[in-house]
Design brief:
Helix content is 27%, strand content 38%. By secondary structure, it is of the alpha/beta class.
């Protein structure tokens, strides 16, 4: 019985980690032709208050876009303007674990059993990054990528999660126009 309780408790503690797996979404203008785009600018649009993190994100996405063959240019000469936005939010997870047998209650001659309930509340921080790309000529938004994941107190873990998000966001980039 103790082993069963330990296994159930372990499963309940792992469940929140599975529920907050990295989420990456991409949307783009299906009519926009990315083929002629050769140059871009990149900047932080909405700062999230951590200068080190902002520089890491800027560098990671700059490298990912450059790896696709685009060249960095000044604003007047760029074909595309890339603007990065970031935000954090605190989430709470509440887990209740019941042990023992509750019985049938006191009504109708039933016996009241002894049971216990233990509730734990855990807080975690979610980071959200948004990559917006605007056509320099029309100023229209033509690409939006969002990545959301739990942030760690360990900067190395966050760097790995950032790299993973970048890989997912730019895996099939630039998108091809649909006919």
């Amino acid at each position: 019985m103790k082993l069963l309780r330990a296994v159930l408790t372990g499963c309940l503690l792992v469940l929140p980690a599975l529920a907050i797996a990295q989420d990456v979404k991409i949307d783009y203008d299906k009519a926009f032709n990315f083929a002629p785009v050769q140059t871009y600018t990149i900047r932080i649009g909405t700062a999230w208050g951590n200068d080190l993190s902002q520089r890491r994100v800027l560098e990671e996405f700059d490298q990912a876009i450059a790896a696709k063959g685009w060249k960095k240019a000044n604003e007047a000469q760029a074909d595309m303007h890339v603007v990065l936005h970031g935000a954090t939010s605190t989430k709470r997870n509440v887990n209740t674990f019941y042990s023992g047998m509750g019985g049938y209650g006191y009504r109708y001659g039933g016996m009241g059993g002894m049971g216990t309930a233990s509730t734990t509340v855990s807080e975690y921080t979610i980071g959200t990054l948004v990559v917006d790309m605007f056509d320099a000529k029309t100023k229209n938004l033509v690409f939006r990528g969002t990545a959301e994941d739990e942030l760690s107190d360990n900067p190395e873990k966050n760097a790995k999660r950032l790299e993973k998000a970048s890989d997912k966001l730019f895996k099939n980039f630039p998108p091809t126009a649909k006919k």
